[in-house]
Structures
1.
Amino acid sequence: MSVNKPTKITPPDSGTEPKRGSLLERASGAFGLDSLKPAGVPQGLESDKAKKFAPKRRTEDAAPAQPAQPAPPKRRSSDYIGEAVGADAAKPAMPAATPAEPETPAVAFTGQKREIVRSMLREQGLIDPDGGASTLLEEFRIVKRQLLAAAKAEASAHARRVLVCSPHPNEGKTFCALNLAIAMAAERDMEVLLIDADFGKPSIMGKLGLEAGKGFMDVLADPSAHVEDFVVGTDIPGLWVLPAGERTGRDSEYLASERTWVVLNRLTRGAPNRFLIFDSPPALAATPAAELAKHVGQALLVARSDQTGRAALEDALDLLSACPDIKLLLNDATFSPSGRKFGSYYGYGE
């Protein structure tokens, strides 16, 4: 809103003082609002039809031209040199370039590979890497494609660390972690390290028929330990396993320490084709899941059909919020709205 300053008119000599201007009029004079003009408003509307539309405002007058400034005095070359030196001194130092990752992995897995009994995998409903196409394999191919695409778009070692978790026990997070690791290991030139991070109830080694020993927690507790010495090889091409190790009673504290960053960075540095998959405790049952979420770039939150409640999912999402990319994985669903039947298409039924 703007007003014009009224012209000062001297009233006739009537023995009374001139009337004082209003507050807006005095503000107009004090703050230099005289140059502003009121918005263009028509005097009247031509017809009832014109009342439905607001009139267009007139283009504001161009700002008055500024008076020409006098040319600066001629300067000597030494003046410019002095200014350049001063400018360089005032300019903040550029941050040091981030060192490039080495071309070869910082850690190589060279341990002896142990046999995984395929019949044991089938008995537990897990993917048989030698069994051909199946409904289960096709479903986890869809899951792994989403994870691989996200890791490729992010192009960082952090994105190649995947946490598999669930709100409560018995919702299928270990089942999904195992199948995802087997499906990912089938990729050409892919190396997958499946880490049992469920320190309270470790089960990865037992489900694969392998003997459990020292592992992840032992490496975190001992600064002199080398993580590659505890990695167990399998005869499934591309699949390696790291046991949970001895439980200490201070799992969360060890995971929150700087040592965890050192160990995980050692595993992923210089290895763009290596994925780490963590089987963590349930988010609402133990605190290590929330600590692990700070060290991964992607997370799969497993929900069991007709069992996991919405409130539990929301609480789990809050606890895992340190992870920048959380995906929901529905487990044990028997109904598909689209009618997908991958196994029957390839000639395998489940």
2.
Amino acid sequence: MNADRLPVIAVTSGEPAGVGPELCLRLQEQSFPARVVVLADRHLLAARAQALRLRLSMPDYSGESAATGVELLHCPLATAALPGKLEPANACSVLAMLDRALAGCQSGEFAAMVTAPLHKGVINQAGIAFTGHTEYLAEHTGSHRVVMMLAGDTPRGPLRVALATTHLPLRAVADAITPSLLEECLRIVRTDMQRKYGIAQPRILVAGLNPHAGEGGYLGREEIDVIAPVLERLRGEGFLLQGPLPADTMFTPPILAQGDVVLAMYHDQGLTALKYATFGAGINVTLGLPIIRTSVDHGTALDLAGTGTADPGSLFAAIQEAIRMAGTARGVVA
């Protein structure tokens, strides 16, 4: 493939005091079928590379055609960052880096963006209301609803788990699962499986909320009153849906083999199984955005920052998935 046909993938380095910068340095060890552009402060990367005895040989990103490799788009910090030491003064710089990647995706300069983890608390400490990458990108792209999906490869094939609700207290989940929420989530999952994964007729396995999927109403009526009616209506539109399924058996190989993606009702219902199967190499994908965005499935790991022991596997996998999705969007097999 010619260099000018390679997808250009933006990788934001995330919280400068966390493991993101050193994971980005580790990208130089890999060969990707793409141009990978790291958005980071050059001085931060140089300092982290020196401390960890890693090389820094990323050429400056110019926007012009280049061969495969890792390039650096310098995004200056307001103040020097030390491993493990959060600095609110850098919050605006970190968000400016995210804004630059997003603008590049919206203009077509970048085919996708991959995000290393941010620290929500330090951004809020700086006086900026911030609840996370996903919500920020949804707001700045005018996306009414987005769906968090985690994914990873297993010996039996890819496992993809989308969530109807995310970071809610367990006692609030049942009230949050309304017919409109569930329908919007299923439409987003189906559309992005088609557009970004190239699955013409995605098969969606839908979990119930209660133990044994409510056991005919004896263990709760959400399946009868909310979930099943939505599934039946969407089946009439051609959706391929199974459920509501008992969550304790849904993640067994015979059931998973019948679907392309799972929709779980709440965070731990879906992600406990996903992370058990893929931990260290799982990724986060935001469905419902007009751009392609993937991320690592871990946090800033401040305790590991500067030690060189953080596992780059999730970042590698997130970039590979972004490349595959960009190829699907362009009609090219990655």
3.
Amino acid sequence: MKKNYILNLLTISLLFLGVTSIFAQSTEDFEGEGVASTSFSDNGQTFTVTTPATGETYDIFNCGGCGWNGSATDAQFIENTGGNNGAMNGTSFTISTGGAEIGVTSLYLFCSTNSLGTHSGALTITGYKAGVMQYTFTKTSGFSNVATLTPFNGFTFINFATEGGVNNTQKRIDQLVITGTGDLDYMALDAFSWAPENTLSVDNSILASQIQVYPNPSSKSIKISDLNTETTYSIYDILGNKITQGSATKNTEIGIQNFANGLYFLHFENGIVKKFIKK
């Protein structure tokens, strides 16, 4: 009996470690990269940035307090002030792995006109593997306000688990093409979250289509449904300020009675974001 108990305990421990590694991901905030570089490395993987349009250049730029690392402002990010394609011509850049297959979880994009004003264009993001398209989605609304820099310092959060109504985080790609049309002539990329190939064999433990925040709106507390495992979270206000953080399991109650009334963003560790209203 004792032997069986020890074997079962070891099996459970190994399964737990396996699940933990399966859901591992990495976030590149570009802070340690060389300014003006068109490549970057994160967690042992090298990425190359290319720009298809003549006269346009995307590379790593430094501007103190101008970026967004996912929770606070930072200084370095990828953008195209080094050369652009002119007004009303849109913009585009590609991130390639050199053949290694990855999954993209989320990223933050500052999307504007060349004069850093509000744009009226469309954003399209397409993933390829060996030249074959694996997914594509287009976003025409819901961008952060680049005039007031709210939320997230003006960067728009792009969640690959929910954007376009499909969870693309588990689809393996080796190239990501990010394109703006119309007067979406300027883009800056920060907090690029991705997962290596060997972590993509199991679907995410939190499915954006299943998870719900309730009651919403609420004045005292919220709960989270359909969490399959304990998960860390952070709550941000509409200005991108972190209000609180913690860990939760299914139906964990999170007190919000001391929050100011308004819209909040509940970020989970795997990149999924849910909105709720404090009334």
